[in-house]
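Researcher: Here's my situation. A collaborator sent me these components and asked whether they could plausibly form a single complex. I don't have experimental data yet, so a predicted model of the whole assembly would be a useful starting point for our discussion.
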Amino acid sequence: MIRLINITRTFTMGEQAVLALNQINLQIASGEYLSIMGPSGSGKSTLLNIIGLLDQPDSGQYELDGKAVTDLTEIEQAQIRREKIGFVFQSFHLIPRLTAAENIELPLTLGGVPIDERKVRVQNALQDFELEQRANHRPAELSGGQRQRVAIARATIMQPSIILADEPTGNLDHQIGAEVMLLLENLQHQGTTLIIVTHDRELGSRANRQIAMRDGKILTDQTHDTP
Amino acid sequence: MTLLDTLQTALKAVISYRIRSVLIVLAMSLGVAAVIMLTALGDGARNFVIKQFSSIGTNLLVVLPGRAETAGSFPGAVLGQTPRDLTLHDAQLLGRLPQVKRYAPLSIGAAELSTANRLREVTVLGSNENLIPIRHMKLALGSFIAQGSERSAQIVLGAKIAADFFPHTPAIGQRVRLGDSRFLVSGVLASQGESMGFNTDEIVIIPVDYAQALFNTTSLFRILVEANNHEEIAAAKQVILATLKQSHDGEDDSTVITQDAVLATFDRILHTLTLAVAGIAAISLIVAGILIMNVMLVAVSQRTSEIGLLKAIGATSTDIRRLFFTEAAWLSLVGALLGFLLGQLGSLLIRILYPQFPAWAPSWASAAAIGIALITGIIATILPAIKAAQLNAVVALNRK
């Protein structure tokens, strides 16, 4: 359950103040499939970053699962990111010197999960995402689709309740992108909240709930039946 | 993040940036090796000098006639010396002191040594049977001037003299002429080479009363005294001075030099010198530290998006700071240990090339070099680590 109340975020570009988010009010139920669309500069990525606790609003309140998280300490916020939120990025953000398995293991390592349990969970994730043959390959030796699968495996290894995906298919061709979307949507079917930021109308229209943004404001918020 | 995971993760980073890591480790290890080798040289020089001094005897006191001091202008004190010499009687008095283990009077001069077909001028030492143990000399052949045999006309030849005079026949039992007297060769000194600028290979030793007769004098050049043990050296010095004063009609006209005093001075000088060179070498460690800072700053900007990612998947600022610190600590540690090995190898090489030179690095120097390497490496990472931890996750993620 995500609740944003009057969230405002301003950036200073040189001497000019840019209002990235302007009094945003938004409520997202657990397990929802939501897409945020809009042209670049509309504030959709900023909104995603605030939901993901990577960025702090200038004003307003953010409640996650009924708890105000805006005023938490840096360490508490890091813990929430680790345990409740999984990020999927357009450019994958895999660490180039680590193997696929090591990249997937990273959140477990940061979380201090014992090594035996880590190995089992990474092995399962490799199976789930059909990456067993690629476990010991570095990102440079993987295809785009494989890289994004590794990134999704990493995002889900801590079994987060929310997946935040910023243009997850932006660097993939159409068919691979569709496969990646199926993987993400499959996670949503299992109960994870899935929030996707995109400027691709076709991609965004796959979600049950679609939000359109412009100039830091929510323009439309439509809910459809499952397509 | 557990400590073990931090160590492993940082080590992986060190290994994967291979060239960078090798260069830093090299810089660090050269600094450490320089400190170790220079202190090995300095300390080796110190030990070398100490050994030279020790080789002239243990718990040794040297009694000199006269007292070098500023004197009034009364007759007989023109040179700042009293006219009274040390005599054999003085030496015997000292020998009776409880603090004295043994003594050897020393009379020195030059005379002509000859056999039927050879002749040369030699330095002649007159002494007693104690000279050998007090001065740590060794005999190669035969016996020294035996105790109680000061009246028998025996002579001990230096190694080179013996070899020159008797190249084909054994020297022991041969008769030689020294000045106007005939002596029987009783022993040959082992070759010891130069010691404190005095070559024992080219001297001959005869009983002290023969020497005094030969040089027509009753005075002694020196009296060598060995104290019972190290603790009694100071007491022995006092008693010797008092005894000689009494013997010389209350005139305080002898000087006693203890080997310790001379040794301590050299020890201090060379120790200070060692510290100085170690300090100079330590500067290279500081330079290596600055290199580490530079490289870690580059690493932070190179890995900006990685730091952003780590934050996104739940790393705290502390985790990130620790990762960078640990990475620098690995680099310094490996550098320090490699440097330690290099330094020890270098010292070993010096010892192999110059076996008489004890080039051992003192353990304080090795410990200090490794310690300084680790500390500078970690201090140098404070700034880069803080920079990394303070990075804004959103900005970091979006930077390519």
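Model: Some features of this prediction you could bring to your collaborator: Chain B has two domains: 3-53+264-398, 85-252. Chain B has a mean pLDDT of 86.
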